[in-house]
Amino acid sequence: MKHILCKILLHNKTHLVVAASFMIIGAYIGYLIWYILDSYLPAAAADNGYVFVSLISVWLCAFWGIYQLPDQLCMNRRIKMVLCYPVEAQTIVSVVAMRIFILQSGICAAFLYPFFLFEAHRRRKAVLALLFCCILTGVLDIGVILFSIFLSRFCACDIVGYAFVVFQYGSFLVLAWLAGNVVFALWGYIAGKSQAVPKEQELHVALWVWAAALLGLTVLIMALRFAAEHWYVRGYLNVQDFRHREAGKRPTTSHITHPYFLLEWKRVTRNKELIFFSNIKNMITVMILSRLLFYNFSQIGLTGTYVEELFLLMSCCSVNTISSTAYSSDDNKSCYAFLPISGQRLFLWKTIQGFLWGEITVFLFWSILICLERLPVLSAFLLLLYGTSMNYVCSWLGVLIDLKMPRTVNSTNELLHGNISKVLVLITATILTVGEIFLSSRKWLPVPLLPFACLAGAGVAAGEICFWRFCKGVFYDTDS
């Protein structure tokens, strides 16, 4: 019965060839990681490589469990069909959890099997590490299931969906933070530079760890049986009510007070590529571009205090996809000529939207700089001011260039839009930044580089605002 129930709930039609292909790929990845650790790390670090691999496998299993378990147990509509039959809630939970746990155990085995096959003196440690990873994965899975049942049962039906969104994405962030901290905390032991515990206490500590893991797993299994029996079905139906609660609701009339803001907000938010994928591409571009600019210009003598930070923030500002595709990605631009829409005000709101979205990237990289370099308060404030002013300068310039560019886009992919505009903005911003650094390095200015860069950026932004205010005819899109 559990086999049939698994097919109904998970709707899995994976072919045997596909499953075998995934197993081969997993085995190859595990072997590749083992080969890299064994070949390129020092001997002391290679001896403890299984610890590092165990951490990676547990992290991947936890990520997969957080992603799959709430969806399969609380959002799966096929469970509603099964509830009409005499099937216990514990059986439903165990079938779904066991299927996901088997996949997670396969991930752990794929990462740890090379230590068992190719290193005979570490086979016992590899087996123990595999068992411990499976136990720890089971503990994490049961914890995720318990918290999911708790949310579904005790959150109101009108907010339970949002609670699950916060839980899943918050768990991803916490998981990433914990993974980094655990690796840093154990790096001395992994690299062979120190011991986790004294040798005379290894057996004692190992017994206590295994006892705690098994005891915790037993307690969580008992708690899961109670929660599945008393809370799961009501919680599941509560989540389903959230998904269908708007079916009979009549839409209310609304009054749009800021139509230009609404037009731009819809343009940006309705295109997931414009927000997520292009921003990920931009972050990678910023990290590469800032290092490249700093290295090349430092070779010709343009050096000084905070030069690298200025190049980093300038790169953040100049690769703003939302501003450099302000008109080319606007599907409504063909309607603007027939509507009483001010081209000047539309240009302003396109600039503001690009500025606000770009400020998120600027603030992110600025925060990383503050955390890594421990800058003085005044310097940190001036860097943020410089990034904000340059963000507006580059957003305004990107929107203007995209407005004046010919409408000859060869691709409908938003990731390819605005590349020429971004290149022109990057060239302009680089010239401005290099000029500021050049004037400061030659001691031709009575003020240091960072305050001068802030003043120059604010001055250019003020000039752009004045140009927008008094040159109204420039901002009408004649190609729409």
TrEMBL record:
<keyword id="KW-0614">Plasmid</keyword>
<feature type="transmembrane region" description="Helical">
    <location>
        <begin position="16"/>
        <end position="37"/>
    </location>
</feature>
<feature type="transmembrane region" description="Helical">
    <location>
        <begin position="162"/>
        <end position="187"/>
    </location>
</feature>
<feature type="transmembrane region" description="Helical">
    <location>
        <begin position="354"/>
        <end position="372"/>
    </location>
</feature>
<feature type="transmembrane region" description="Helical">
    <location>
        <begin position="379"/>
        <end position="399"/>
    </location>
</feature>
<keyword id="KW-0812">Transmembrane</keyword>
<protein>
    <submittedName>
        <fullName>Uncharacterized protein</fullName>
    </submittedName>
</protein>
<feature type="transmembrane region" description="Helical">
    <location>
        <begin position="450"/>
        <end position="470"/>
    </location>
</feature>
<feature type="transmembrane region" description="Helical">
    <location>
        <begin position="419"/>
        <end position="438"/>
    </location>
</feature>
<keyword id="KW-1133">Transmembrane helix</keyword>
<feature type="transmembrane region" description="Helical">
    <location>
        <begin position="128"/>
        <end position="150"/>
    </location>
</feature>
<feature type="transmembrane region" description="Helical">
    <location>
        <begin position="207"/>
        <end position="228"/>
    </location>
</feature>
<keyword id="KW-0472">Membrane</keyword>
<feature type="transmembrane region" description="Helical">
    <location>
        <begin position="49"/>
        <end position="70"/>
    </location>
</feature>
<feature type="transmembrane region" description="Helical">
    <location>
        <begin position="91"/>
        <end position="116"/>
    </location>
</feature>
